[in-house]
Amino acid sequence: MALVFPSSARWFSVKFKKPPSPNYDNIRRVVYTKFEPIHFILKNDCGGGPYIWDQFYYGLLCSPKFEGLTYPAMYEMFHKEMAAIGMTQNRLRVTLQPPSRFHLMRRAVRWRWGIDC
Question: Is the whole-model pTM more than 0.85?
Fold first, then answer.
């Protein structure tokens, strides 16, 4: 009788399964539908402690919708859309740039965004 072991892919996916995150999913849905980004990274912010999940975020967003706008106008547009889904301004720290100024984010984009906390 031969021993049958489960595939390694199955165990890997079970070990690192994403916990439920409705806020994260809502933010991504709104950003991809409203802003159509060319570059978007969102990461869980553990500044409040490692036990806080799906509450605070930081990230980068580069969208053609920001072209020709001032920075206050970009942030106002972004936070207006986030307020519609219940994410207040103090829960999101996102760097916003239009595609013409993407070179200003080149160091931040190359930074390694690892596993949360």
Answer: no
